[in-house]
């Protein structure tokens, strides 16, 4: 294990930002810290970096107790959402900065900067100023600068958060490839579940200062530990006493008998290749609006139009967690992710 976080707690005044957090982050992997805004992700990252002191607990980095080490002695590279580049220095000088202050010989620095700029695909921009780069290019420069001093750990705090959706998607694919090429232990903070699912080897879900679950993306999606993780990792809807993924609800247009609950389609909306429908179920055991999702072809053959009669059940073998969360009122038409 490369980073061992043990019983870390941190308060700001009376506010508990981290509450006895323990987690181990494996060497060479890309781990995402995922959770809603204000959950404590940045605080944990800053404590690992040595930019913030915990009230209690310890941090071990690559076998060294780093709890009392200053940031500059921890050998970590850090990239923030808004990267503060040296505006008057070229891209190459910005990347070389950490090497220059370590008094690395000129030739070695030049070779390393060339190599890094190639790695982040900025070799043709070496002599530009940071202001002459796009947002995505600037974040790639920031990564090259963080990597220049060969950190044992790379910490990224929402590095693509300020960029538009398309560039973010490109950069996350690029980051995944970069990490496969040079597998530096990387911790990546994000509040975007899709970003975490796509990029990370392992995800640590953090909410209200606590770790909710740790696991591989598929494990978290398929075997969420609780209601919070189920709802945060993807859409979920309540059927009976369970929280279920909308695509795991089997919908039939005829009455098959037992197990299925009868319902009426209140609304069906096409979103890209899928059709999302809100079905009002009124039965003896359960009354509420259930969100279902079908492909367009399925929706067409089931005639999923508003007013249609349908029968629902949770598909056998699919993921679910028990819930006693309040039901959606029939006239509310919940649409986005289930929220706790
Ligand atoms: P995240 O990165 O998950 O959005 P943060 O770790 O930044 O969350 O913050 C967790 C909580 O701690 C937030 O409620 C935030 O307002 C609070 N917090 C963070 N840093 C400070 C600080 N320096 N002073 C006071 N409160 C802070
Ligand atoms: Mg943050």
List keywords for this structure.
binds adenosine-5'-diphosphate; Rossmann fold; binds magnesium ion; disordered C terminus; 340 residues; 5-stranded antiparallel β-sheet; 18 strands; 6-stranded mixed β-sheet; OB fold (Dihydrolipoamide Acetyltransferase, E2P); 2 domains; alpha+beta
Would you give an account of this structure?
With about 350 residues, the protein is of the alpha+beta class. It has 2 domains: about 5-225, 3-Layer(aba) Sandwich (Rossmann fold); about 240-330, RNA polymerase II/Efflux pump adaptor protein, barrel-sandwich hybrid domain (OB fold (Dihydrolipoamide Acetyltransferase, E2P)), CATH 2.40.50.100. The chain is built from 9 helices and 18 strands. Strands 6-7-8-3-9-10 form a 6-stranded mixed beta sheet, with helices on both faces. Strands 13-17-14-15-16 form a 5-stranded antiparallel beta sheet. Strand 15 and strand 16 (about 285-295) form a beta hairpin. Helix 2 (about 90-100) crosses helix 3 (about 105-120) and helix 2 (about 90-100) packs parallel to helix 4. The longest helix has 17 residues, at about 165-180. Mean pLDDT is about 90; it is low at about 330-340. Bound molecules: adenosine-5'-diphosphate (ADP) and magnesium ion. Adenosine-5'-diphosphate binds near residues 17, 39, 41, 42 and 43.
